[in-house]
Structure formats: C-alpha cells, structure tokens
Amino acid sequence: MRTSLRALALGALASVSAFAVTAPALAEVPLDQLVRIVAEGGNSFTRTFNPFSPTARWVSTRTMYEPLMIQNYATGKLDPWLATAYEWSADALSLTVTLRDDVKWSDGQPFSADDVVFTFELMKANPGLIGPAAGAFGQYLSSVEAVDAKTVKFTFSSTYTPGLYSLVDQFIVPKHVWKDVADPVTFENPDPVGTGPFTTIDAFGTDRYQVTKNPNYWQPLNIEGVFVQGFNGNDQVSAATLSGNLDWGGLVPDPDVTFVPLDPEHFGYWWPRTSVVLLLANTTDGALGDTVVRKAMSMALDRQRMINTGVWGKSVAANATGLPEAPFKDWLDPKVIEAGASWVSMDPDAANKLLDEAGYAKGADGIRVGKDGKPLKYDIIVPSGWNDWVSACQIVAENLKDIGIDVTLRTTTADSWTNSTFTGQFQLSLGTAQRTATPFEFYRNNMATTSVKPVGEASPNNQQRYGDPKVDELLAKFAGSTDAAEQKAIIAELEGMFSAAAPAIPLYEQPDWGLYNTRRFTGFPNEQDPYAPLSLQMTNGPLLVWPHLARRAD
Amino acid sequence: MYYIAKRLAFYVLAAFVAITVNFFLPRLTPGDPASTIVATYSTSLNAESLAALKAAYGLTDEPLLQQYVTYLGNVLRGDFGRSLSNFPAPVMAVIGAGFGWSILLGLTSVLLSFVLGSVLGAIAAWRRGGWFDRLTPPVLLFLGSFPYFFLALLLFYVFCFKLGWFPMGNAYSSVNPPALNLQGIGDILMHLIAPAFTIVLVSLGPWTLNMRNAMIGVLSEDYLTLAEAKGLKPRRVLLSHAVRTALLPNITALGAAVGAVFSGQLLTEIVFTYPGLGYALMRAVSAVDYPLMQALFLIITLSVLAANFLVDTLYVLLDPRVRTGGEA
Amino acid sequence: MSLSETFGAKARRQLLGSIPVAVGLVILGALLAVSALAQVLAPYNAKRATGGINEPPSLAHLFGTTGQGQDVLSQFLYGGQNTLWVAFSIAVLTTLLALIVALTAAYFRGWVDDLLTLVTNVFLVIPGLPLVVVLAAFLPPGPLTMIMVLTITGWAFGARLFRSQALSLREREFIAAAEDVGESRWRIVAVELLPNMGSVVAAYFVNQVIFAITAQASLEFLGLGDGGQITWGSMLFWAQNSSALIRGAWWTFVVPGMAIALTAFSLALINNAVDEIGNPRLRADRLLRRAGVSKPSATLMTPVKRDA
C-alpha cells in the first residue's frame, strides 16, 4: 500500500496545540453534516494552509484554492473552472484565457485577472513557492498580463504547447491578501481566503479538523463541509472504513471480500488506472544498457502475480508503450501495442533463448555473464514499507533468477532510495510516471537526452539515464504544434521507439485507490458515472466532486 | 546541596551529549532532505525552487561545525525551526499538543501498573505458596513477554474494532478539546482505557514480582514476627508495616518509569492513533524531517532527565546517607 | 559460564527440579532446535510463493500462507534462525561490552573509573527506543545494523550492574586478602572477581536476549528492518502491511507473535527461578530493569559507596 503510505506522509506531522490554538472557542458544525474523509495521515496537524508548501495541508488545494482549469483524468478532458476558455495565438506564442464572471473570494472581494497575474508574478519572485506552474518563467513563459478584468494573456518565450496544462492547472491566490505577506514561502496562512467550496475553519484539533462552506462559492453546494481525520496506519484506516465511519476515501485490502459485502447497497469502490508501474534498469550499468537484456528481463516477469499479490488482482498488465490505457486511449497506437506484446508478456523460455543468442552465456553457478566478463548480479532497491512495490520486487528477483540473472532485494529508507535513484546510483528499481494530460512528459522524462543527467547529479526524471536525440527532435516538434492530428502522429512514433528500445520495463497499471460509503452522502463518481476521479489523492480531482455530493434525506 | 548540584551538572552534560548525537547522526549519512522532501511531495522540482526551499528550510552547505554552533545557539533560544514535513509550521507547533497527551497516557498507565502491581504483589507475598502466588508470576511473565505493538494490535482489533467497546482512536470525541466537566473527562477516559490497558498488561509483571519479592524479604524480618507475636492483627501488620517498607523499591522505580514513559508507549500510541509524540517521532524519522526529529528527541531526553533529577532530589530527602557521598 | 556452574549442588537440584525452569527449558530448547534445523524441517522455500494468498492452515501448509503466498511454517522456522542468532549476538556483545567496561573500571579505578561511570550514566539516561529508532533509520537496514544499534544502546545497564557487583566483591575479605598478599590486579580481576560474578552475568545475559528479541521485533515492525530478510519481526511487519487481522488471516500474525512471546517467556521463567535461588540483590535490579521501561535510570540502583 505504497500509495496509502505516501498519502499518510502527505499530511503528517505537525500539529496545532490542542491547548494553544483553540483559544477563541470555535463553533463546531455537527459531524453528521460533514463528509468524513481520510486524506492526511497521522495526527499532529497544524493550522497551516499555505498552498505553495511542498507539504501543503490536503484541503488547501482540494477545497480552498482553485485552478483556472482542471485536467479531468476520468474523462480525459480539460474542464473549465475559474477560467471558461483558452485560445492559442496562431504562432502558439501567446495564450489567452477568459475568466469566469461570477467568482468571488470567500471574504466577498471579486476575483479578477489581477489575482491571476499576481499569483504568477509571486511565483516568479519567490522560486521557493511550489505549484504546477513553478519554474514556468525559467523555461518557456515570458510574461503574464491582464488584458481586462476577465482576460489574462500568457506570452511565451518559445513555443511550448504542453505548457498550457501547467499554466491553467495553477491554483490562484487573492492579491488583496497575499500582497501584504512578508515571506510567502513561510506564510502559515491560518485563516485562508480562497475561491474554493470550503474555506472556513470551524474547528481544528491536533488529529482532525473540519472545513466548512465558503459563503460566496460560485457554484451551488449541497453539503456543509468536510471532516478530515488522521490515522496512523493502514489497519486503522481499514478499521474505520469497514465500520462505516468514513464517507469517502480510505483503503481496505481486497474490497470485494472485506468491504462491499458488509453493505452492498452503500459501500462501493472504483479504482481507475491512470499511471503505470515501471521496472527501471540503470542503462549506464554494463549489460543493463543492452536493450536485449532489458527485454529478456521483461519477458521473465510474472505480471499477473504482481497484480494478485500487490493490488488484489485489480489491475492489468501494462502494454509495450509504457502508457496507461484509460487516460491515453486517444493517443495509443494499437499497432505498436500489438507488435510489442511479445516483450511484455511472460515467456521465460523465449527470454532464455534471447539471452543465449545474444551471447550472455551461463557461468558455472548458473548466472549469466556479461560481455564485460562480469556476472549479471544486481541489487533491486525499494523503500521498506511500500509494500505493493516490495512484493513486486520480490517477484522480480524470483523471476529473474529463472533466466540466470541474480537479483537481490534490498529494502532501504525512502530517503536513501530517493537519493540513489535520483542520482542514478542504483541498478534496478521501480518507478511510476507522473499523471499528465498528454504522453509528452512521459516520453520526455524517460527517453529524451534533455532529461538525462550525469550519474551523481540528482534528477527525478530519467533515472535509468536513457537518451535518444531522435526523441528530442520529435518532442520539439510536438511542443511547437497546436494541431491535434500532428501531435498524435508524433506520439505514435514515440510509442514505437519506446517499444523498440525498452528504456523502461512496464509492469502493471497502478490503480488510483478510491472508496465511498453512500449511507449519508450520495453523488460519488464511480464506474457507472465516471464524471471525475474518485481518488482523493489526485490534486484538483475532489474539486470536481464537491458540487455533485448531496446529503441523503433520511 | 552539593550532591544535587553535582547531579544537575551531570544531567546538563547528558543533555549536551544527546543534543550533539542528535545533530550529527542524520548529517553523517548520505542523502539530502530537501531533495527528498520536494521530490516526494511535488512533481514540479527544478533547481531554482530547490535552492530557494533549502534556504527556507535552513539547510546550508556551511561546514558542519559551523552549522553545529548555529544549531546549539538556536536550541538555547528555544528555536527549533520549521518542520520540513509540515512546512511551514514551526516545529514547536507540531509538538505542542502531543506532549500533553503523551504525558497523560504515560502517567495513567504507569500509576495504574504501579498500584495494581503492588496490590497483586502484596497479596501474592502474603499468601506465599498459595494458588494465587503460584499462578500470578507465570501469567504476568507471559503477558509481559509480548511486544507492546503485538498486544496493542490484538486489543485494537478485538475490543475497538470487532466489539466496538472502545473508540478506535483519538484522545476525545469532539474536534476541539472537550470542556473539563464530568462528561468531558469521561470522554477522555474512554479514549484512554484501551491504550493504557495495553501498557499496563505488558508492564504489570515486574511491578508485581518486585513487590512480592520485597514483601517476602520484609515479612521474614524479625520485627514483623515480633509484631505478630505481640498480638497485632495480620491485616494491620500487612498494611502498616510490611507494605510500607516493601513499597520503597517500587516507589524508586516509579520515578524512572515516569521519565522513560515515552520510550515504552511509542508503539502503543501508534496502534491506537493516540495523538501523543510516538507517531510524530515515527513520521519525522520516515519523512527525514530533521528539525522535528531533533526537537522530539531532545524533548523526550529532557523529560527523562527531568524525571531522573526529580527522583535524585527525592532520594536525598529519603536517604540522608547519600548527601555526604554518592557518585556522579 | 553456564548456569549450573555458578551454584552449589543444592541450588542446582532446586533449579532443575523447579517446574517453571523445566517448562522454560523445554520451550526454549524446542524453539532453538527447530530453528537450527530450519533447512531440514522447512517444507518449502520460505521466500517464494508456494501456495495461494492467505490460505488458512491446512495439511499442505500447516500454519497457512502469507499475503504473498509464502508458507508460514517455513517462514517461522527460517525466521527463528535469523531472529535468534541476532538476538543472541546482541546479548553476547552487550554482556561482553558491559563486562569490559565494568572490569576496566574496577581494574584501573581512579579517573578511569570516573570517566567510564560517567559515560555509562550518560548512556543510561538517554532514552532507548527513540534513539534506536533514529539510529536505525539512518543506517542501511539489515542484521548487522540491528546488532550494532541495539548493542550501542543496550550495554550501559549491564556495565553499571557489573561494576557495582565488582565493587561489592572487592570489599569482601578474600579479595582484600589477595590484595594484601600482593597478587597482581589482573589476577584479582581474572581469577577472583570474574568467576564470582557468574550468576549476575548469566542473569543479565538471559535478560539481554529477551530485550534483543523484543527490541528487534519492534524495530522491524516499524519498518526499520530489512524487508528482504525473514525474521519473526519482519513476518509481523508483513502481516500488518497486508492487513492480516482485517482480512481474517490471523495465522500470519499470531504465529510470529507467539514465537516471540514464547521465547521471551521461556527465558523469563528460567531467569525468574534463577533469581529466586541466586543473588537476592540482583533480583531487585532485574525487576526494576524490566519495570515498564526498557532501561531504568542509574539512580534506581542501590548506591554503592566507593572507597575513599
């Protein structure tokens, strides 16, 4: 349950002193009015709602501050939000965004183009502010200006059409509040003013808090607010979920067996898949740099067993393009998938044959020897506690032994794992791709020379250090294009190159955990009504859901 | 007074050692907390943001020694910096509430085990060789053989989850702390029972056996036999003489147990989602939150030292012999 | 320094005739034996999936299977091996370290003694588990880290105990006599002091095994162990992570938990009986040591006066 552990880490620590903060008696809204969710781990919450913090409180970007538009990973569409429309100039060097008319901040002040411009200028002046558009100015953005109160114009320094998604994804903060903040990076923002549905802190405790209605929200709302509770571990979350003490979120093992049968009428889950778990082999390390070896490794793996043990069978094996099917169905080229199927399917005999033919003969101990004379002995590293990944790694080690590659599983701390993988000082490891609107970032981060850093220099991308100049050209062409058909053709070409070179080994699609309990509230997205993602951990996803929720009339 | 001053000097030294270990330990291992944190929590990492955040986190590339001096100065001023895993909250805000709950849970469970254990031990010793005396030690030793977390998880599963007798976590039902009236205190107690009971079960054995053995020692002493011979009622002898004398070692142990409370209950707090410092320390460690980790470790150490110092002072009052000699 | 050597014939009879000791020895012996024979007894490869996921106990898998499909019985056996050698190593190392510190202090006396006592006391008052957690988090997980961390944090009480014992022995007549005769200090330490500390050392050693097993399991349960190693603690970690209790797979949880508890219990039974017969002073110390905390403060000890 790596996802859940990471989710726990997200909220974590910190706390408001139960003794100190509650000085003015806050009026608690009765609990039965609130949607109870599990979104932040553990206790020690602090009353800090700075959305720019890398460890921002969960509600800050899911109920308090809103972006211009929301990439809806359930529908694959870019949903209008604070902005209603965007338009590229003919040369794709400027982007004009039209804002919604009727939006007010929670303190009653009108929302305008000035707030948008201010937010971007603030991020430019303070590089320590983290958000979707962080670093945009350094890379492709040259200026942001208010054409009028409801129109914002972004001017680009170079054509980069994927920048659209980062810019409109940026949450906006109010100028009239933040202009007086001395240091926005360390601003604790205990009484947030936002455009989101829930901005009022009615009660705040060290291990739970409630956030209720923004009186000026621009959409109709049928619920009063949310109640966020902290838990210390998976068992505690499961126990609360199974007891019906949570309305949304949470995690239970094997929900078909443990969860749904308890109350089939009200308990449900929906685990769509929007990313892929990859096996990364450091291509700077001898035989791991050989495509044949990586493909043979891929053919030795029992993906179905990883799915059964790690995610209770609730996923599918990944295809040869490395892309998840549901969110990128319009981009996927069936021909590439079909042609590449053989190297992402289990066939240890074929894998052995491939290695024999390529000259990786087995030594006396049954371990194959590389062309440099070194035996194919590797460590696979994984943070202890990310247990769906650890069990996948166990299976990788087992399977690879069957084709004469000796793999030892080493669990490490998350800190040292991050350090090793970022700096390229590892042999085998697992990874996932970021969720993005188009496959552009996936191929840039896994195959472009521009994303390859020398071993020893840290970078979250291209940990396997694989680069192909041809990919750079195709990506540049993609970034300069506003023509959907042309972009699709470029991605298809990249898919083919990925399948041919195997820069990373796709394992299985990672489910986005999501559970709901409709005893008190209805309207959650699910397989029948997939209007938005159900996962609480997807940034902005919950914003799409709040207006759909309604309290059940008893 | 000389003795107390000497002990005080020793505790200052111990605290200094703890602070120093605490500073150098995480820094001597490879890894870079800023990169790790930003990478774990954010998808938009770039060199410029990273540098700015490092500055905001107070992480510098200065020589270690210089950082250490700065750190010592900050600690003396009570400035522990901001928590990295809950940025930008100050570390002290993170720790604030948990401290009180940890102390409540610790005191309750230590006092309960002390009282229960002493009573059980006294009964066992009084009826030495009886069924109670023969049964109690092995049963308590068996319960005490379980790791805290194991028993805690079993109790959590059975009594909180399956049977629903006790709440599944937190220190009270409402979001804001309850008023300290009868109802509010009852609510707090309901949340305290399960975790406290776990600690009592595991730690009861030593208190009981300790009391039992001390009692047996005292009971065999002549003056008690004499008192009995003089016709005093057995119960009177037990209560007024034997128990009081035999309690002394347990009382001494009490001081230390209170001081070291944080160590023992860390895992129990985690299992029962009790808002003490246990989970905070665990999170700080796994999230490489240096400032929080350092502050927590320091606070725990200082609590232990304070409790020890208290016991030392009491010791002087109880045992005049120590005033003259004693050791560091 | 076997237990029986340190007691007279009467005490030895008493000890072996005691029911708790017999029960303890049988349990401990059985656990040690099956763990030692894991390679022979284990029906399956403990690391590989050899059955379905979370299968309840059956003839094919006597203790059921784990959430990863491994055989719990095989894991229990190999886990015992890995757990017990680490625990005994820690006990041996902490006992040795404590003895060395105590005897060095007793041998050199003067400022060396002062210094070592100071260091011991500092280690005693710095809280155990938090330090262990912090230490373990920054070292590569594995048995060696486990041994190192628990040895560093676990020796101080023993040093304190042994030093007191050595000092009180030194005041006894036969040692004084040996000093008067002009025997070398080394000889006094090695021939007079050490053999007479046998029962204290033995009891401390047994306690250290208990301490090491529980502390090891706690660290592994917190995820600070090596997840690739099979130990009783890591079995519990995995059971917990695959929500064994919630899913009703109690066998993955109860088997390693009981293994740990039974080992500790058998050792405690033996030790408790040894206490009854052995040194009465030690009894109090030992009990205090286990009094709800892993490490009592230095001040718990009856102060031993140093000769001026």
In terms of topology, how is this protein built?
The complex is a heterotrimer of chains A (554), B (328) and C (308).
Chain A: H1 2-11, E1 34-41, H2 58-64, E2 69-72, E3 77-80, E4 83-88, E5 94-99, H3 113-125, H4 136-139, E6 141-148, E7 151-156, H5 163-169, H6 175-178, E8 198-204, E9 208-213, E10 225-231, H7 234-242, E11 248-249, H8 255-258, E12 267-269, E13 273-281, H9 291-300, H10 303-311, H11 334-340, H12 348-357, E14 377-383, H13 387-401, E15 406-412, H14 414-422, E16 428-432, H15 440-447, H16 469-479, H17 484-501, E17 505-511, E18 515-517, E19 521-522, H18 541-545, E20 550-551
Helix pairs in contact in A: 9-12, 10-13, 11-17, 15-16, 16-17
Chain B: H1 2-27, H2 33-41, H3 47-57, H4 64-77, H5 91-126, H6 131-144, H7 148-162, H8 182-219, H9 222-229, H10 234-259, H11 261-271, H12 277-286, H13 290-318, H14 321-324
Chain C: H1 9-17, H2 19-36, H3 38-41, H4 72-108, H5 110-125, H6 128-137, H7 143-154, H8 156-170, H9 173-181, H10 185-196, H11 198-221, H12 232-241, H13 250-277, H14 280-289
Helix pairs in contact in C: 2-4, 2-13, 4-5, 4-7, 4-8, 4-11, 4-12, 4-13, 5-8, 6-7, 9-10, 11-12, 11-13, 12-13
Average of per-residue pLDDT values of chain B: 78
Largest interface: A-B, 74 and 67 residues
Overall mean pLDDT of chain C stands at 78
Helix content of chain C: 55-70%
Which class of secondary structure composition applies to the elements of chain C?
Answer: mainly alpha
Global geometry of chain B: globular
Strand content of chain B: under 5%
Q: Report the principal-axis shape of chain C.
A: elongated
Helix share bin of chain B: over 70%
* Rg over alpha carbons of chain B: 24 Å
Q: Please report the number of helical segments of chain B.
A: 14
Oligomeric state: heterotrimer
| H-E string of chain C | HHHHHHHHHHHHHH
